[in-house]
Amino acid sequence: MITLYEFPISHYCEKIRWALDYKKLDWTGKTLLVGPHMAQARKISGKTTVPILDHDGKIVRDSSKIISYLDKTFPDNRLTPEQDDLKHQAAEWESYVDKEIGLNVRRYVYSVLLNYPDIVIPFFAHNGPWYGKTLYRFIFPMLRKKMITFLDINKQSAQLSKEQLVQAINKVANRLDGRDFLVGEQFTRADLAAASLLAPLIKPVKYGLNWPDKLPNELESFIDSQEDKLQWVKDCYELYR
Ligand SMILES: N[C@@H](CCC(=O)N[C@@H](CS)C(=O)NCC(=O)O)C(=O)O
Prior knowledge:
Blueprint: E1 2-6, H1 11-22, E2 28-31, H2 37-45, E3 52-55, E4 58-61, H3 63-73, H4 84-113, H5 117-125, H6 132-150, H7 155-176, H8 189-198, H9 217-225, H10 227-240
Parallel strand pairs: 1-2
Antiparallel strand pairs: 1-3, 3-4
Helix pairs in contact: 1-3, 1-8, 4-7, 4-8, 5-6, 8-10
The structure holds glutathione.
């Protein structure tokens, strides 16, 4: 049995939801509530981050380690290239996008969304325990402050993350100029990582959240400014998700 402990809003969790679906595995998602998750996650894995995979009691934490574990345990529909040099390239790209796209999308997007509890609370509570939304009505102001500190969000850091994100999007777009995949000739974990971590900017249905028609204007205009370069993410969702 495979259980994924996750936040529906988290793009690192989307990386694993996608990997599990790509590999056609049967799995169940268990939403942890952002904030109260800390004690639960620590109890399961010793650390507080999600995604956490529980496969028949074997616990694996961290999205890259989870994909390696899945490929080793369920070799069909591999995401890790078999050839050594391609495997190495895929690991380098994955590590680059995990940091430069994953962290910067998160800081920049939260710098905006944390000012919109009506959008973010339903994301946090999605598929979670029945009391989620009510709980957040009480704890959201305190949670917001904690997240701002934890994610080191301020005007300057949010602006810097936005700039670093554009650089990373450009690097991916340059690499893809004339090619379909970041590495080799087939869809790999490098593509899956880049596309899932950029996915909050294209709001795909298969991400599983109920996206509002419009995100706040600031985010929408940023997304519009990157539209051409994000087409590849949409294509990956269309073809491989
Ligand atoms: N490198 C980790 C990053 C995971 C991560 O940062 N997860 C965030 C959600 S996007 C999290 O769990 N934050 C809550 C916490 O750190 O307590 C991975 O790839 O799994």
